[in-house]
Design goal:
The chain is α+β, with helices and mostly antiparallel strands. About 12% of the residues have low confidence. A hairpin with a 4-residue loop joins strand 6 and strand 7.
Length: 232
């Protein structure tokens, strides 16, 4: 750990004390986690505090922790002949049925969270901040656009793709999907093939939507590589 990163972690623990749920240093990076109720107060100090001055919001994204760390494919004993299947398949026919893995997952944290990456030009430091939405059915967090107005489109993207709501955002609407799109495509229980497909109907002379006809199946395994692991 570099001295500069260590000093930042120490300053964060000292400044916020009980406001932080955690403050961790890994891979020479600092990550803090705050509760929803403390998010705005902590962010204001991070931006305006003389010893922090994180004036630039680099990124804001949503996270869905459903089935976190679980994979349908077991790749720990991968060999030149291919990947082995998981011990427990996702469905009776050995193919993934979307939603099955969510029922089996046991989360020790709220399902949805927002991760914010900040940059201090003055001190040349970076910081990662995570805040979880307490309600899985309606994930709601305060908008940070009043602190960093550059968060505007980032929050719209998190709303569009994950369904995370931002209280105080003055224009929270979809930004990447169609106006009539149903669902949030980055949620773990959203099928990779989608719910509907569209085609041009010669008789109706217009584009129509129909239930998707593609069979969902896993073709490429998700690989979780540990630090220092090399290819087999």
């Amino acid at each position: 750990m570099s001295e500069r990163v260590e000093n930042l972690a120490t300053a964060l623990r000292s400044q916020f004390a009980d406001q932080l749920l955690s403050c961790e240093v890994a891979l020479d990076e600092v990550t803090i986690e705050v509760a929803r109720e403390q998010l705005l107060a902590v962010c204001e100090t991070l931006k305006d505090g003389s010893e922090f001055q994180f004036e630039q919001l680099i990124d804001l994204c949503g996270v869905d922790y459903s089935s976190y760390g679980e994979v349908e494919w077991d790749t720990s004993d991968a060999s030149s002949s291919g990947f082995s299947r998981g011990v427990e398949s996702g469905s009776a026919n050995g193919r993934l049925v979307f939603g099955d893995e969510l029922e089996a997952a046991t989360l020790d944290r709220p399902r949805f969270a927002v991760v914010i990456h900040l940059l201090s030009y003055k001190f040349n430091q970076r910081l990662r901040l995570r805040c979880s939405a307490p309600n899985d059915d309606m994930p709601l967090l305060p908008s940070v656009t009043s602190i960093w107005n550059g968060a505007d489109w980032f929050e719209r993207e998190a709303f569009d793709l994950f369904g995370i709501l931002f209280e105080g955002h003055n224009d929270l609407r979809r930004i990447l999907t169609d106006y009539g799109f149903v669902g949030h495509p980055f949620r773990k229980d959203f099928p990779l093939v989608g719910h509907v497909e569209m085609r041009y109907d010669e008789e109706k002379k217009r584009v129509i939507y129909e239930p998707v006809s593609i069979e969902p199946r896993v073709l490429v395994p998700r690989v979780i590589r540990k630090e220092g692991q090399t290819d087999v």
